[in-house]
Amino acid sequence: MTLIGIDLGTTNSAMAYLKNGKPEIIINDRGERTTPSFFQVDRENKIQIGAVAKNAYTSYPWETVLEVKRLMGTEQKVDVSGNQYRPEEISSYYLRYLKDSAEKFLGKPVTEAVITVPAYFSDAQRKATKIAGEIAGLKVERIVNEPTAAAIAFGFENMDKDQHILVYDLGGGTFDVSVVELFSGVVEVKASAGNNHLGGMDFDNAIVDWFVKKYKTEQGIDLFGFGTEQELLQRKARLKVEAENVKKALSTQSSARLNLPFFAIYHNSPISIDEEITRTQFEKLINSLAESTLEQIDKVLKDAKLTTHDITEILLVGGSIRIPLIQRLVEMKFGKTPRKDINPDEAVALGAAVQAGIKSGEIDSSKGLMVLDVCPYTLGVDVVKNVGGRMVSGFFDPIIPRNSTIPVTESNTYVTIADNQDEMYLGVYQGDDEDQYVRSELRIGENDIIISGIPRRQAGQEKIEVKFTYDINGLLEVEATILSTGKKQTEVIDVQKGVMSKPEISLAKEKLQREWNQSEFYHEVKNVINRAEKIIDEVSPNEQAKIHDMLSNLKNALSQNNANLVKKYEEELTDLLIELV
Questions:
Q1: Matching PROSITE patterns, A to Z (predicted)?
Q2: Catalytic-labelled residue, pool 54, 63, 69, 247
Q3: 146 part of the active site
Q4: 88 is a catalytic site residue
Q5: Is 7 a catalytic residue?
Q6: Out of 169, 303, 346, 515, which one is annotated catalytic?
Q7: What pTM does this model have?
Q8: What is the pLDDT of residue 547?
């Protein structure tokens, strides 16, 4: 069994393993240390993942998906060339590509992975990530928070130091901040906070919005107000990619240019773009977003009961920390320079590999590193309260407070609210300690847990103890006990809105295998298909008919993913082409 660590990112992903007891990045099959999180079905119906898909994005935006991580844990589907995919499915293709690349790099099967997620990912988003791994053929028993993984990578090299570190993780689509204490080989997360809708893609969009507004003001033309749906999609893709290039350039330059020749045709005249933007202008565009991260820092320090002066080291993680404004704000906040020797693109994957080593036993936690993480959200139930003589439902009653060290078990006791009540309905939710009401989007479990068999007595005389157990992978177990009878009811919540069901997972596995194999088969035979299609117009009608029949047979075999027939028809077509040449 080979177990690797994977940083499944919004814009880029990375993977690592333990080599001679130390974490090392795994190079993908294109020789890259990170893999762009792009999915594409090209015009030849071949699945493309990573740099190939990213490079073709502006030409084929309809066939390309990116930034799907923000959709994890939702029921929203993604359209690719007219085909519908769940976010878990798209992520599973990324993971399958990473798995295959790792197997080629290591020379042996990879069966299991530790996958990282943003610290502020909800229960549904964590389950969706595990499901994506399962669809890809990976056993995923361990989910690790991204800033925790970065802290593990740092702590692995600094086990002899006692200190408080702050991990500031600003990636392509999410932001997390964690306070971590290192002592005697222990990595203990004290508190986490974050924003799952803040990252580099928002900075790109700020540039796009600025330019579109500027162009409309100066030229009177809304660049996205005319053209076909396909033209608009391609236009948005080109401007988005150019905005990302400009953002990156402004990290090292004081100004950059948006340069997009022949961007559109308006009233039969071509529009080309060549516009300068300075770093100062860019910083004004993103300043409020950047400063909002400082609010999360304040929150996490408060939860950890620490001040900025208590922080020994600051780790900046994620590609977006290269923006000078971000570095400047963090440095001003703490009055000290963050560590510069941490690779922001690789730290999370390296930490995941260390965690994988701990799980596999390759790293003996009793003799070395031990990791203690926290529950990022408060977990509780919805309760009914007496408000002005009326019973009002929908109030949030916390059971496990956020930032509790995991695994953790806590309980509360509730009473019946009606005479002769023989059932109690429990709705389980995530939230924050200060939430007064439950939030429907953070409901855990598709349906209420029904506690039945309560003795019929007057209201308030029957008590039910509700116990929550939250494990290291974010799996919640609920146990309810009717105290008067001792009757217990236990449920592990694994089905909920926004998470694929077991039948859906099985179908997704079959779909991935079918499309992946079809893609691989096509890759193996595309050269002979291309040769046949080129020569068909140069031969006699009789020979054209033979080529056409063989091409049809081969393409039908590809659509059926029948390896034996693909090989048979490829050989027959190859022999015919040799005869004709």
A1: HSP70_1, HSP70_2
A2: 69
A3: yes
A4: no
A5: yes
A6: 169
A7: 0.86
A8: 85
